[in-house]
Amino acid sequence: MNTKRGSIGGCVLCILIFSAYSLGQNLTAAQNAKDDHLQYASSNFTSISASYGYISEEHTVTTEDGYILTMFRIPKGKRCLGSVRQPPVLLMHGFLLNSDSWTDAGPTASLAYLLPDACYDLWLGNVRGTDYGRRHERLDPDTDSEFWNFTSNEMGKYDIPSFIDYILNRTSSTELIYVGYSQGARILLIMCSETVYCNKIKLFISLAPAVRLRYTRSLPFRLLVNFYELILPLLTNPNELEVLPKGGLIQSLAAYFCRDYIAAATICKLALNLIDSYDPLSVLTQTARVLFGHTPAGSSARNVAFYSQSFAQTFNKYDYGADKNLEIYGSVEPPQYALNRTTIPVVLIYGKNDYLVDTKDVMWLSTQLPNVLETYQVRRPTWNHLDYTYSQFTPLQIFPKINKYFLKYTDKVLSSNG
Questions:
Q1: Is 182 a known active-site residue?
Q2: Confidence of residue 35 (pLDDT cuts 50, 70, 90)
Q3: CA angle 138, 299, 49 (to 5 degrees)
Q4: pTM > 0.85
Q5: In this structure, what is the dihedral angle of CA atoms 246, 251, 257, 260, given to the nearest 10 degrees?
Q6: Who's near 384: CB < 8 A, 6+ residues apart?
Q7: Per-residue pLDDT averaged across 156-172, rounded?
Q8: Does 299 qualify as catalytic in the annotation?
Q9: Which of 101, 182, 300, 310 is flagged as catalytic?
Q10: Which of 174 and 25 is assigned the larger pLDDT?
């Protein structure tokens, strides 16, 4: 059974079928060829940022357990006319995304450009299982099932500490600022629970933290994660254990269909609204044309199934079943993550119309953390989960709040180190 390629759910297949119909309304090939932005969908972060005039760097980081991950850096934005501020900033992507997602809204609306332009030394990580995290010192992701035996627990325990060590060593800093979106926020809290690296974080900006997800309203998300929770014991081969990879059937078809302007403006935007909620005018059609070029970016079946377990009342470690839990944890039930170990200053930012991370779950999280500076609801009433990466309104809706705290927790220096 090849679940990676074909068994994602009727909802996605219907979207692709209707997309095929929309091709009949395509723009001409000449019109599409004139759109220079289409080439960015198949490029990597370095070439994407370079096309907009930003100088970026590519770095390779190896985790303690052997995963080889790619991280990118924009040390200074092209609109930064003053001194670069320190400490450096680490920006982490969400579930099934990669660092390229931070570029999709373009230079006027993406955090990948807004932050360097505001004179911050920006680093963008990629977790294991994405197309930028598909290498290992001894395991082959195409032949070794062991490669895919991870969840967001390992991302927090190994990936983020490795990024932190690398950045601090490269910049000669003693701490950094962390911005985590969705899964990116989840794994920082796991890191603080399971390691001593929390004291290396000066400030934590949490965007729609996907921690406890008890009140998730996204039906496609619930169907996806519950499906993998159900069939996980049946999956054995690497091509079954890798879920929604970049270059897989779903991503390739979506990238092809959504290149068309009319399809992107209708069916592809509809797909986004089905996953999350409707936010009119927030995601530009051009952004929809580009984002499917590298989204979804892949993960493991076990990680997807772990999200199904997040519908509980508390934020617990992975549930392997009573016998294995007893072997691993020393208890029949999986223990809770120690959220109270996240003693660093935290700013929680959430949207009222977010169907994946509900307001009630964010409010619950705010009561579990000992040092919450602010719990901020985005003013736009229709702001949803996908808007953090794709909205044209980012400069007005969330960047001012982020920059307010960045200015408080950073200092000017003569130049960017490293």
A1: yes
A2: low
A3: 95
A4: yes
A5: -40
A6: 276, 277, 278, 279, 282, 351, 353, 354, 355
A7: 98
A8: no
A9: 182
A10: 174
